[in-house]
Design brief:
One of its GO terms (cellular component) is chloroplast. It comes from Macleaya cordata (Five-seeded plume-poppy). Keywords: ATP-binding, Decarboxylase, Lyase, Nucleotide-binding, Purine biosynthesis. This is phosphoribosylaminoimidazole carboxylase. The protein has seven helices and five strands, in the order αβαβαβαβαβαα. With 181 residues, it is of the alpha/beta class. Strand 4, helix 5 and strand 5 form a beta-alpha-beta unit. Helix 2 packs parallel to helix 6, helix 3 packs across helix 4 and helix 6 crosses helix 7. Helix content is 56%, strand content 14%. The chain is globular, with a radius of gyration of 19 Å. Bound molecules: 5-O-phosphono-beta-D-ribofuranose (RP5). The site of 5-O-phosphono-beta-D-ribofuranose has 11 residues, from strand 3.
Length: 181
């Protein structure tokens, strides 16, 4: 029995190590100044138990790193990439150009132009290279969209999404009830 337990423990710790080594979602952003917005995507993924990694990868300041990240992500086992950037927000589109994975773009609001520059830079992709763009600063929805994508082939995860939707509905109905009565 002790041997069986030891084997099981070693298998479990190997599994833990490998899930650490190959997270399912890559969250990348152009600058550490994007982190206050982008950390919300990681929080959502953590809530749903989806392994993720967070990296600073700039299209303009570290172009080689961006290329190698995008080209290797699917080979490492990443399944979805969430990319946030502000201003001349080229990161999501350039990463989408170099990966077969779905890319979710988060336009980050900078100190000028209210984030419209970021939104338009990310959303106006040419035919053939899609980026699923969420609303300005809405990294929450980027996290939820990634979970929904993974839920297509992960029944447990999809069940958690259904529960999340139910909880959200209950919360809204409770609030509405309070307002009316
Ligand atoms: C973009 O430039 C980043 O995504 C960030 O939103 C914006 C400003 O970057 P910092 O000058 O704050 O590093 O590349």
């Amino acid at each position: 029995l002790a041997i069986v337990e030891a084997k099981l423990n070693s298998l479990l710790s190997k599994e833990k190590e490998s899930s650490k080594a190959t997270p399912r979602v890559g969250i990348i952003m152009g600058s550490d100044s994007d982190l206050p917005v982008m950390k919300e995507a990681a929080r959502i993924l953590d809530t749903f138990g989806v392994s993720n990694e967070v990296r600073i990868v700039s299209a303009h300041r570290t172009p080689e790193l961006m290329d190698s990240y995008a080209l290797s992500a699917h080979k490492r086992g990443i399944q979805v990439i969430i990319a946030g950037a502000g201003g001349a927000a080229h990161l999501p589109g350039m990463v989408a150009a170099n990966t077969p994975l779905p890319v979710i773009g988060v336009p980050v609001r900078g100190s000028t132009l209210e984030g419209l520059d970021s939104l338009l830079s990310i959303v106006q992709m040419p035919r053939g290279v899609p980026v699923a763009t969420v609303a300005i600063n809405n990294a929450t929805n980027a996290g939820l969209l990634a979970v929904r994508m993974l839920g297509i082939t992960d029944a447990d995860l999809q069940a958690r999404i259904i529960q999340y939707k139910e909880d959200m509905k209950d919360e809204v109905l409770k609030k509405a009830d309070k307002l009316i009565n």
